[in-house]
Predict the 3D structure of the following.
Amino acid sequence: MPIIDVHAHVGRWQFHLTCGDADDNLRLMDRYGIDLQLVSASEAVVYDAVAGNAALAKELASRPRLHGYAVVNPNRIEESAADLRRCLDSGRFVGAKIHTHYPGRLPGSREMAEAFDVVAEAGVPLLLHTWGREVLQLPEMVASRPGLRVIMGHAGGDAWREAAHAAASCEGLYLEHCRTAADAGRVAYAREAGVPVERMLFGTDATLIDPCWSLGVLRDAGFTPAELDRVLWRNAADLFGLQVAS
Amino acid sequence: MSTSTAVDRDRTPAYDWLTPSPREQIGWDVDVLYGPWPRHHRDVTLAEVRRRLDRSPVCGALALSTRGPLFDDRAGNEETLRDLADCPELLPVGTVDVRDAMTAEDRLDELAAAGVRFLRLFTVEQAADPGFPGYRRVVGLALERGMVLLHDGDPRRYGPALMDRGADVVFLDLHAYLLADFLLMAREEPGFRVTTRMLSGPDSVERVVHSVGARHLVFGSRTPFMDISPATLRLRYADISDDERDAVATGNIEELLS
């Protein structure tokens, strides 16, 4: 079966580890059998969204196994809205990415609401960095914007229990569990809370985190082969309209 | 929006990760607990912890009851020794509550009499800073007795207070983001070690091994509160020699036990 990684990055981070250009992504993908990867530019996340998205577009041009998320900065909403349209028009971007830590805006803020409006209007999935109890704001934010689909990147981080209940209560919310601190039982808890396997996705945070980390979480989660098939690729293919040879 | 991509399937499908391999085998996991913990959504008994380890690549572990750090250090140490007496794959770890360091000497004497070599500190749970008198007292007494510290918390905060003392310390909570600070200390401290638990970067393990040596790295999972496979897979796929992998998985702790 194929593998689609819905949460990855291209570019350097400010820590003592190697995560360089897009070829590093491909090298790690090959090691673990990952077919497609959806990436945002680290430069766009931590520094300059427009410049980072533009640089990523160049990297994507020669690497068909990578697809882009255009980073939207809630503090630069008009600029980001225009940039999102530009990126999507290129045909190499398939969604939007919004971080919360770097722009300093959480769900519940006016700026985040405007950013959600921009992504909803664009009609593409949103990968949202989620890390804390503010995830409880998401069901209302998503339900009030029909058609918006939001991947809860890191599945809430420390607030993975709250994230599970939020996702269970809203069909537009998806869980993606990549995280260094691999708390045991997160997947089982989400399933018991009522999140269907059809709304669980595989993401790695590569190349910040080695993909084997999330693969290990899947291995310990005890999915059946049919469920693994959904989580590893089929759910992502449906959500993003991607086609892979299965 | 729909995007169609034809994937080149000529590459070898790498589903090796679904099945544990011998390169994931762990002789000693230094970070295992059992018993109630109110913050977690459910408690895990010793029997369940043993079953979980039995299904994993981990062969042996340094373990303790949660009673000691959370409620009563003396009773917790007694419980650990009593419970693990019938568990050949588990070695007992002791603890001292740094909030009541007036009794630390008695606790440490009891542990020494029982042959316990590893002392686990819970500074995060017990809200102890490295400058607190109680913390300093416990650490001083433990080092005088030649105990190995299993130390939680941020090594950037606690490491400097432990340097230049000939300390054997295993830091349990080092995140990959903080690796540079640990390596700077490890260059000067042969007894400073760190667990693999949160070394999630694509080359975090390699950076420890290649810059300061495999002796500074041991395996720790935090079973039952963390998944085991992420860290065993990272070690399995790490670009290090088999000897270095064996040292991390087993040899370094065997050396401390000898």
